[in-house]
Amino acid sequence: MCNNYTTEDKFIDDILAALLEELHGHKFINNRYAVVAFGAQVPPFDYPRSISNDYGVFVNTTDKLRHCFNHVTRFLHNDDYHKSNSDILQAISVASRLNFRPGVSKTFILFSCNRCDIKQMLFDFSSILQYMNEEGVRLHILTNTEFTFDKQRKMRNFFGFDKHFVYSHRFPEGESETRHILQISRSGLGICTPLALETGGSIFSRKKIMTERKNSFKRFATIFAKRVVQSAMPIGNQTCECTGHKTGVAYMLCTQGELTGQKLLLEENDLDLSGMDWQSEMDDME
Fold first, then answer.
1. Distance, C-alpha 76 to centroid of its chain
2. What distances in angstroms separate CA 69 from CA 27, 98, 174, one per listed residue?
3. Which of 56, 204, 209, 266 has a Cα-to-Cα distance from 222 of 20 to 30 A?
4. How many whole angstroms separate alpha carbon 172 and alpha carbon 67?
5. Is 124 exposed, middle or buried (0-12, 13-18, 19+ CB in 10 A)?
6. Which is nearest to 203 in space by CA: 141, 155, 253?
7. Phi and psi at residue 192, to the nearest 5°
8. pLDDT attached to residue 77
9. DSSP per residue, 97-111
10. Position with higher pLDDT, 80 vs 117
11. Helix (H) / strand (E) containing 254
12. Could you give the CA distance from residue 125 to residue 276 in angstroms, rounded to a whole number?
């Protein structure tokens, strides 16, 4: 998550409550949660880091998860400090290397405050996308960005979208007809948009409901939670093997059977991006 979100924002409580209700309703039990924070204006809080609780990174209740959110350091913008690190792909890389249990589903929810500018990324888009698909990571994005669409008159009470459906107050289960004629603006989340869509995730914006009644927030949270849980089923036919980070810490790496031999190690300095043509990469993404 980026540091513009804190538990002072009741929106977080609505999201957590809705997620817990949907997980239990679909018989997902023994769930674990973790928080990776990044994007502050003051080092070392600008770089991605996991928030620990009781000497562990993962917690098993939403109450403990709220405690993790309370420890997210928030710094307001100040011109005296250096520019904030907004490398979202690096944050995803850090989250992907947490010590997950073998065979579980991996759902990442990005609380986004910035556009995904590929010029600020340590890793390239295609490598992160391949790695996430191999490990079955689903990326969902919550943002304050206001998306602009063609056929704007048909998008009243818009909440979010995925690769196939649009979600709104009127269509909580998703509506496909409108989705096919929508053209998403190049502005907004940059390369994070295709990253979420190509991993089977979704993008929801609370921009239009920020000034509305509390009930609107809860309905938004419920529809978002339903979409997250919809894609939370673990992938079958996984092959797991013991591997290790450069630090020597061992962990279990689980991939789909046919992808077992294709590993991407995303440790720092593994990828040499010095010769990359950033402008061409941006043109390809857009």
1. 22
2. 25, 17, 30
3. 56
4. 30
5. middle
6. 141
7. -70, -25
8. 46
9. TS-PPTT--EEEEEE
10. 117
11. strand 250-256
12. 12
DSSP result, 9-40: SHHHHHHHHHHHHHHHHTT--S--B--EEB--
At what angle are helices 62-70 and 10-25 packed, to 10 degrees?
150
Q: CA 181, 175, 114, 93 torsion: positive or negative?
A: negative
168 in Cβ contact with 176 (< 8 Å): no
Which amino acid, residue 74? R
Whole-angstrom Cα distance, residue 250 to residue 197? 31
Helical H segments across 168-242, by residue range: 176-181, 192-198, 214-230
Quote the tokens at residue 1: 């998550």
Cis omega before residue 48 (within 30°)?
Answer: no
Total length of the chain: 286
Q: Which amino acid is at 220?
A: F
User: Residue 13 is encoded by which pair of tokens?
Assistant: 């409580």
Q: What does residue 248 show for φ and ψ, rounded to 5 degrees? A: 95, -5
CB 166 within 8 A of CB 158: yes
- Token digits for 269? 């300095």
- Would you say the pTM of this structure is higher than 0.85? no
Phi-psi region of 126 (alpha: psi -120 to 50; beta: other; left: phi over 0): alpha
Residue type (1 letter), 46 = D
Region for 121 from its dihedrals, namely left if φ exceeds 0, alpha if ψ lies in -120 to 50, beta otherwise:
beta
The answer to whether 241 and 260 have CB atoms below 8 angstroms apart is: yes
Contact (CB, 8 A) for 205 and 144: yes
Quote the tokens at residue 24: 């239990």
Phi and psi at 146, nearest 5°, equal -100, 115
What is the token pair recorded at 139? 């990326």
| CB 252 within 8 Å of CB 102 | yes
